[in-house]
Design brief:
This protein has about 160 residues and is an alpha/beta fold. It has a domain at about 10-90 and about 125-155: 5'-nuclease (Rossmann fold), CATH 3.40.50. It contains 8 helices and 5 strands; from the N terminus they run E-H-H-E-H-H-E-H-H-E-H-E-H. Strands 3-2-1-4-5 form a 5-stranded parallel beta sheet, with helices on both faces. Strand 4, helix 7 and strand 5 (about 145) form a beta-alpha-beta unit. Helix 1 packs across helix 3. The longest helix has 14 residues, at about 95-105. The chain is globular and about 40 Å long. The relative contact order is 0.18.
């Protein structure tokens, strides 16, 4: 008989998207205080942070190519974060296929729908993002949309350059 693991339902499992992690690692980003409050709850016994294994490389690209942060500084902040308590996961083949189906069903781009598939696979309770589209995408799912950044601050994100 195969032994099955039971998930600890007393813990929240929060899937981070590229925006939330990139913002968290940049202290002077306009949304940092709000995102940090949510991510730092992940260093407690009540919340677990879930990060796709490729995400740190996407964050590195955002930092260095879009925001002009020095490569060494970005690398050190990402490495330091990864040494904290996080659950790194990879998408499964079925998850990629499911992403395309979700995109078709929800009439949305596959890149955002990928996070929906990943959240399902990871048994996430929330997706932490600053992307307003996720409010709609998370409707009817077993996890919730979590965007702690107020609209007036979100409007300052465009053109952010650290």
């Amino acid at each position: 008989m195969q032994e099955r693991l039971l998930l600890d339902r007393s813990k929240e499992r929060v899937l981070l998207d590229v925006n939330s992690l990139a913002i968290y690692l940049v202290e002077d980003h306009p949304g940092n205080d709000h995102i940090s409050e949510e991510i730092e709850k992940g260093f407690t016994a009540k919340r677990e942070l879930v990060v796709m294994d490729y995400l740190p490389f996407r964050v590195y690209w955002v930092h260095t190519k879009k925001w002009g942060i020095e490569e060494k500084i970005s690398q050190e902040s990402i490495t330091s974060f990864l040494e904290s308590k996080t659950d790194l996961i990879g998408i499964k083949k079925d998850g990629i296929i499911e992403s395309f189906k979700i995109a078709e069903e929800k009439d949305h781009d596959v890149y955002d729908c990928f996070y929906i598939s990943l959240a399902r696979q990871a048994d996430a309770t929330h997706i932490l993002t600053t992307d307003r589209d996720f409010s709609y995408l998370c409707e009817g799912e077993s996890f919730e949309y979590l965007n702690p950044v107020p609209d007036k601050i979100l409007s300052r994100f465009y053109g952010f350059n650290s």
